[in-house]
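Hey, quick one: can you model this chain's 3D structure?
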Amino acid sequence: MARVAWVAGKINAGLGRSSEAEAAFQQARDVFDRRGLTYEYALVSLELALILLEQGRTGETRTLAEKMLPIFQAQKVEREALAALQVFYDAAKRETATVELTRRVVKFLYRAQHDPELRFEREGG
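Sure thing. Here's the predicted structure for all 125 residues.
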């Protein structure tokens, strides 16, 4: 059910239906959190952050990031994935996270699932 909500969120986001996307991402996020699925939780949280950032809701993005990082530190997520999340967290904490940065982190995390040796480029490259 969580993955269906996640996909529905992606579809709604792509169609510009921000409130529906936000609700679906939050639903999926809550389930992934309860089940301890940290990688999925990270990805859906970042997709939710994109919605928030597109609407200029940097304070809410900061709050979202503050809830994410401790979970990943405790779960011993791969070093480069944690580094990418740390870059996002630091920017969100300063309320300087951008849609572009968040998309880079999302893209990296998707790719890193299948290539643990992949390195995160801290600058846009």
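One thing worth noting: The domain at 2-112 is CATH 1.25.40 (Serine Threonine Protein Phosphatase 5, Tetratricopeptide repeat).
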